[in-house]
Each structure stands twice: as C-alpha cells, then as structure tokens.
Amino acid sequence: MNNKDLEYFRTLIIHNYLRVIDKTGVSAGLSNNSAENLNNLLRVAGKEGRSARPEEKIYFFKREEEYMKHLIAALERIEKKEYGLCVRCGKEIPRERLEEVPHTRYCVPCKSNA
C-alpha cells in the first residue's frame, strides 16, 4: 500500500475514532481510566433519555471501547507499514473491505474460516 492510501485510511480511522468519542465520551487508548469513561458514557446516555438498564449501558460501553482499541491497533499497523495485509495469510486485503471495516486484520476468506 502506498503512502497516499495509508494516509487516506489513517484519516478514515481517526474520523471513526473521534465519532465514537463525540457520541459516547469514551476515550479508549487515550486514558486508562475505564471508570471515568463509564461515568461519561452513563452521563451521556442519561442526557439522551435512553431507558436502557445499567447492564445494557455497560455492554454498550465495553463494545465501543473495544471498537476504539481495534481502531488504535489499525493506526499502529499503518505506522509500521503493515496495514492492509491479512495477519493470517499475508495477502493484501481488498480496498473495498478496508473501506467498509477499516480496522480489519483479515481478508474475507481468512475471516470466514476463523
């Protein structure tokens, strides 16, 4: 993958990361304080009038935080110039898949066989 493509995907991933922060107040990878992140999320959820039970809110928080960790890992792969290569078979992941799931580590065949 050339530098122009890497920069395109870096921007896309950062955009997705910032969108989650904006939506939830969660900042996985920027802070190790999960309790603070959870409090932010519960505060945001309360302002939006969600009637979800606390365990649903916690599940949502953990899912978003995990997603953000995957985005950070993708940024690290970009820095190492390993982005866009399947970690299982080593083949190039199609651009269409990367645009759909920019944090993916697997090509479709390898993901399907996982």
What is the makeup of the main sheet?
none
Distance between the termini: 25 Å
Helix vs. strand class: mainly alpha
Rg, please? 16 Å
Provide the number of structural domains.
Answer: 1
Order of helices and strands: HHHHH
> How many E strands?
0
Percent of residues in beta strands: under 5%
- Judging from the principal axes of the Cα atoms, what is the shape? globular
Low-confidence stretches: none
Q: What number is the mean pLDDT?
A: 82
DSSP summary: helix tally: 5
| Percent of residues in helices | 55-70%
Describe the structure.
By secondary structure, this protein is mainly alpha-helical. It has one domain (3-84). The protein is 64% helix and 0% strand. It has helices at 3-24, 34-47, 54-79, 95-100, 108-112. Helix 2 (34-47) crosses helix 3 (54-79). The longest helix is centred in the middle third of the chain and has 26 residues, at 54-79. It is globular and about 45 Å long.
